[in-house]
Amino acid sequence: MTVGMVGVGRMGANMARRLVDTGFAVTVLYDRDPERATALAAELGTRATTVLREVTAAADAIVTVVSDDAAMEAIFSDDPHADSLLHGSQGSIFVNCATVSPAVHVRVDQRCTARGARAVEACMASSITQARDGTLYLMCGGDRAAFDVVRPMLEQLSASLHFVGGPGKAAEVKALVNMLMNINTAGLAEALALGHALGIDLTLLRTIFSQTGANSRVLETDGADMQAREHDVYFSAAHAAKDSGIALALAHAAGLHVPLAEATKAQYDAMVAHGLGELDKSGIAELTFADRRP
Amino acid sequence: MTVGMVGVGRMGANMARRLVDTGFAVTVLYDRDPERATALAAELGTRATTVLREVTAAADAIVTVVSDDAAMEAIFSDDPHADSLLHGSQGSIFVNCATVSPAVHVRVDQRCTARGARAVEACMASSITQARDGTLYLMCGGDRAAFDVVRPMLEQLSASLHFVGGPGKAAEVKALVNMLMNINTAGLAEALALGHALGIDLTLLRTIFSQTGANSRVLETDGADMQAREHDVYFSAAHAAKDSGIALALAHAAGLHVPLAEATKAQYDAMVAHGLGELDKSGIAELTFADRRP
């Protein structure tokens, strides 16, 4: 099986490196920044292209890791005059890894199906290091038979692999994961801010949280950073706002009352409005601590 | 050291049993329900009283486990005509375990100090079973020297013991723990409700949450119960509303903007308003699932 990569930013590039390391034939790379693709092609001894249809032509499976809904719609454009991965795609399998709206995955799936191609979602809940090490956490969905075909490749990329359902379902699960992670993060920022206002030692407070019903994964990953104001970006506040927005749109469409998801989205939107969108999501503590307010 | 117990409901009774098991001289029991104290006194071979000042007279250290602020104010009344633990309390050490407002602990401390008595807070983040087994999680505060005197007793009651600061501080930490636990719980109820609305398998979704940034202690303790609608009370929604209210009052007094704490308090208040206050806190999922709404 030959593999093409579309989108070789930090995540995509590391996934390509990992696939080469594990013996996959990565035959073609594409990025909207041609220099990025060219540089990685030189590193990996493969070729770059600036034409999407050449990616489709040069690979059996095409892994896409683009930035957002618009980029995803563009690479899978069904405008007959646009360059698109869909050209000549009969028999191709697309493995779409970007965090985009579930509805976009559903549309891409429909366009692929109409051309005899198949789409698999492989949504990621991990970051750059895990991409390089092949230890991503992958939530997969879409075409089950196509998933089974690319599974050996996905297993080389991941430490954990779940197939959760048809088109859009993996993206929905990813949105739910991030919605809940963001709620827990926003709540943690409030609790630490109140502890600080009360003069409580925050290191001791975090220890106590970790030993009680207040414990959470984000306490481990973000608690000390909130205390120390270390907000080097790992998962940006702007990204959190986007993902919480996807989940909130799903909740509204389902007619659900989700006040915590609403409040969390509003906090991350406020970060973006205050110019703090490129801080890590832990930067939400900059909104809640009385002596830090922007 | 002789020990008296005030408030022998399920928690207090189990703490008394544990102290007797570990060799402490539990010399007197009091409860506002005299029959409860009498029954436990018969079980433990000690005596019950209906007079608070007799508790103070009969013990060196008096452990109190009452239900709320009003009960706490009542047992430490400084009305000279009221029966009160403060009568004849010079030299006594009070160990106050109820979850009450920090300000009440501060007032009790002041009244004790004025009479030559000392107050220790020992706020609990655990429940009935842990009380019986001597594995409570205790957040302690108040008079440090008095804490050191009663520490051997507290160690028999607890698996984990932290001294966090002066009067009111342990209650503040406890309020923070419960505020954050309640936020995480309310958020989890929203995420599971949305997963359900989207037709996602909730058992798989909980597994994925547990392996990602969405993980939390309440996912472990409450996730399956939310899915299965098992809301037998362990920590009631009414209790959650009370504790979130204590934290929210502290946040407002500090001038903090805590939208998630606000939204959580409103949800638990809504449970109480809908007559669901005596469900476990996991019952908040009865508000969020579209097909369960009260």
What's the number of structural domains of chain A? 2
What is the fold named in CATH at topology level of the largest domain in chain A? Rossmann fold
Uncertain runs of chain A: none
The total strand number of chain A stands at 8
Mean pLDDT of chain A: 96
Number of helices of chain A: 13
Head-to-tail CA distance between termini of chain A: 52 Å
| Shape field of chain A | elongated
CATH superfamily of the largest domain in chain A: NAD(P)-binding Rossmann-like Domain
Chain pair forming the biggest interface:
A-B, 64 and 64 residues
Question: Order of strands across the biggest sheet of chain A?
Answer: 3-2-1-4-5-6-7-8
What gyration radius of chain A follows from the Cα positions, in whole Å?
20 Å
CATH class of the largest domain in chain A: Alpha Beta
Strand content of chain A: 5-15%
How are helices and strands ordered from N to C of chain A?
EHEHEHEHEHEHEHEHHHHHH
Just name the CATH architecture of the largest domain in chain A.
Answer: 3-Layer(aba) Sandwich
State the assembly state of the protein chains: homodimer
Strand count, sense and barrel status of the largest sheet of chain A are: 8 strands, mixed
Into which percent range does the helicity of residues of chain A fall?
40-55%
